[in-house]
């Protein structure tokens, strides 16, 4: 798979050269230090592949040859200890709140206690939306949400079209709730009820998964209120990005106190979400391990190595020992495919 990255990705000029390739005992995880050119400029990098029975992860870190030893620790950070959270960047919002987001995310709408965000792969997040709901027909029927207080799942059904219309005005694409997959009760605000809900949506014609917190707040006046926060993404993206989506949601400073712990508890109670929380492979195998620092230093210090010669055995052994310690199993130097 690593050789295929160089052959078919189109990111590199022809004739990329491996400097050191290592793999675990089952050859399901592999890491390679390489030299290549990108539009004629020499780069050094590390490619990482980790496979399981259903798929795998691929990551490639590279930079200009003279910059790579310095930039590698920063490139590595997003997949190092701390995982998802380490790759988030804080955004300060107009109402004084803040949220931490993954690369490629942007704010598309905001207000007092409300933020709408969009990701690079079609993901959408709306946190803190409030929707008035009337419990009896109104003269403005069709332009206001109607429903009986205060079941949160039914309130989500009744009001989603109004929520989607408001989000569309703030920059989101058209959204349609197609069905409720599962729900679990959540701690409720005073005078109300709450539930975490997993649903299917059609967003601009594409199949999406949606995970939301619906909180209903009743009272002595009409309308009553639904407070709605949630994340959605194309179904394949949602399945792989759920931990990152939850980390971003949890980081929003305008969240109710303790929301992060409630999110963790909720996803454990919804069977359909549990497989999405398990990484495809062990994180210590997927990341480019810190043991590469000595190898990178040797390549830059001894330019002859960068011409394709072998990395010193002593330095390679240190890397193998580090990987074995972190992953709990032996690693070995792997031969590079000849084809």
Kindly name the structural category: alpha+beta
* Beta-strand percent range: 35-45%
Oligomer: single chain
Using the coordinates shown, work out and report the CATH topology of the largest domain. Protein Transport Mog1p, Chain A
Low-confidence stretches: 80-84, 280-284
Can you summarize the main beta sheet? 8 strands, mixed
| Assigned CATH class of the largest domain | Alpha Beta
Radius of gyration: 25 Å
Number of strand segments: 15
User: Based on CA inertia axes, which overall geometry fits?
Assistant: elongated
Secondary-structure element string: HEEEEHEEEEEEHEEEEHHHHHE
Model description:
- The chain is an alpha+beta fold and 339 residues long.
- It has two domains: 2-80 and 287-333, no CATH class; 83-277, Protein Transport Mog1p, Chain A, CATH 3.40.1000.
- Helix content is 27%, strand content 35%.
- It has eight helices and 15 strands.
- It has helices spanning 2-8, 68-77, 152-169, 235-251, 259-269, 283-286, 292-301, 313-327; strands at 17-24, 29-38, 41-51, 56-64, 89-92, 98-101, 106-111, 114-118, 124-134, 145-146, 175-185, 192-203, 206-217, 224-234, 331-333.
- The strands form three sheets. Strands 7, 8, 9, 10, 11, 12, 13 and 14 form an eight-stranded mixed sheet that branches.
- β7 and β8 (114-118) form a beta hairpin.
- α4 runs antiparallel to α5 (259-269) and α7 (292-301) packs antiparallel against α8 (313-327).
